[in-house]
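Protocol step 4 of 6: structure prediction from sequence.
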Amino acid sequence: MEKLQLEIIGMSYSQSQSGAYALIMGEVGGKRRLPIIIGGFEAQAIAIELEKMKPSRPLTHDLFKSFADNYHIRIKEVIIDKFKEGVFHAKLVSEHNSSTSNIDSRTSDAVALAIRFNCPIYTYEKIMAEAGILMDDKKKEPEAPGAGPAKPPEKEGLKSYSLNELYELLKKAVGKEEYEKASEIRDEINKRKSRDT
């Protein structure tokens, strides 16, 4: 399977889940984004290393890095290899004494370790096609007051929208960089597409 390299685009506070964050991974050289909901502690572990902050005592991921360095274990790459029931799964591809191993990991932990080991992060095209969100770089012209179609009334939940309306909502959410909302809409679209096949 063809691997796609990812980079960290940013993180934003979750509007719908208390204490959660949306980690935004972007396709290197591409326009697709992979929004991943992670916990507050994991977001902190990623942010601390990205900002090159040094806590007074080592955090768990820092301890793991020191342990691995001490025993000459190297993480070569991280692969986000599954997207199942709305949850991303990852594996650490590690090397020790010329032997390679794959270790199951939560995606947030895998990303936190990838930063510390300075190793690449990948996913597969299948996962990006299923869970990714395409960024549209076309700038929308501002509309004159009163121009354009009337805004549709708010509906109760995503289930009440048609598939075409969901695609339109997805486009708007991505345009506003509301990645968490976009991922919820994407999941609803995927549920409907899987029921239809």
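Step 5 (inspection) to follow. Residues 179-196 form the longest helix (18 residues).
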